[in-house]
Amino acid sequence: MHATAPALIEHFAKLASAYDAVLCDVWGVMHNGIAAFPTADDALTRFRRQGGSVMLISNAPRPGEWVTRQLDRLGVARAAYDGIVTSGDVTRAVLAGHPGKQVLHLGPERDLSIFDGLGLQFGPVETADLVVCTGLFNDEAEGPEDYRDILTTMRARNLFMVCANPDLVVERGDRLVYCAGAVADLYQTLGGEVLYAGKPHPPIYQEALAKVAAARGGRPPLERVLAIGDSVRTDLAGARAFGIDCLFVTAGIHAEELGWRDDPNVDALGRLFAAAGARPTWVTT
Length: 285
What we know:
Strand order of the largest sheet: 3-2-1-11-12-15
Largest sheet: 6 strands, parallel
Distance between the termini: 23 Å
Structural class: alpha/beta
CATH architecture of the largest domain: 3-Layer(aba) Sandwich
CATH superfamily of the largest domain: HAD superfamily/HAD-like
Number of domains: 2
Helix content: 25-40%
CATH class of the largest domain: Alpha Beta
């Protein structure tokens, strides 16, 4: 693949008329974990006022209702979106098929709402029937290698893992912290079986479009659907695999490797997409 990148688009409004629906990433596009991005709010609010539908799709390992409350606290306007689908929602649908099973939970206590009402029990690695990874116990201080010992024990028992957040890292302010995907990827390299509940895998896109169809009274054709996101591994790869266009946001998790946050290096962009083997339809800061 030639190491060039699509031209930068300054305003989403230039593209809006070509689409009926947007499937928009949340963390890194709508907010940075600390505050909302007003320009994203404004752009999607205008799109909806002109008849478009916006479904937020997030690899958050929590139910969509929880994320909606978080967005309220961060200042993301509800007028900017019609609804939200999370990898936590997809994970709950998977776990609903395993009533009464004993679960080893890898992740912080703040993620426990993902298990509410499912009738599951919790147990240690020695007796668990399956594993749900929602993140790291302390993502401020830990990395995936800190989990190698427990992952090795899991592999010896052939435990199946559900990864409730396939992201490797996420922005928290001006820093990057590890996510569940980094732990799941290490488990997979050890030979463990992993189901990734969120992007770039199809179930979260299928659920999002089902909600769009319910809101619009019909599902738009895929050529009229646009994904917006800041991750090559999840947002770009997921959009391409699902057959929809992608608007790639440079001022997210790849910002540091691309140079200035508001003025990315075009050659670096081209190399990033070439290495990924995929190019977005559009690029914006």
